[in-house]
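ingest -> validate -> predict -> emit
validate: passed (alphabet ok, no gaps, 165 aa)
predict: started
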Amino acid sequence: MRTVVAIPLAVVCAWPIAVAHADPVQVPRCASAQLTPSLGPPDGAAGTTFYPLILKNTGDAPCSMSGYPAVSFISGSDNHLVGVAASQDAESIIGVVVITPGQATSANLGIINAGNFPADCNAVPVSGLQVNLPGESDPVIIGHADTACASTAYPTLRVGPFTGA
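emit:
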């Protein structure tokens, strides 16, 4: 008789990004000005689309980063915030990532389809994402046309920590 064991599967979205390995204690923290942000290719699953939120070091020196970015939808010519900021994926492991010039790091960003929520979510078009790096007050902006809930009762963003390969 053959025994079948059911093993629960977890969906993990990871995108390999080349990151140099160095002693993070001796590498200064990344500043927003030395990083170029972008979103990688989408990967959808059950009403949520996942993107690698990529930050490329366009500076001339290595820098380090650790923790979660603060991510919010923005809209309008004034880039005003829309809805509630991304919740953090608390089950992720946080480490220090060192990024050499020309290399990148990424954080996994999940965007829940605003159409999954009731009408009182107040779905509105958005033009991008505001990203604040850990320890930095100057945000970086990523253009991204989408629809988000204006109501803060319906969180539509989830983000993991920065990781490296």
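The mean pLDDT is 85.
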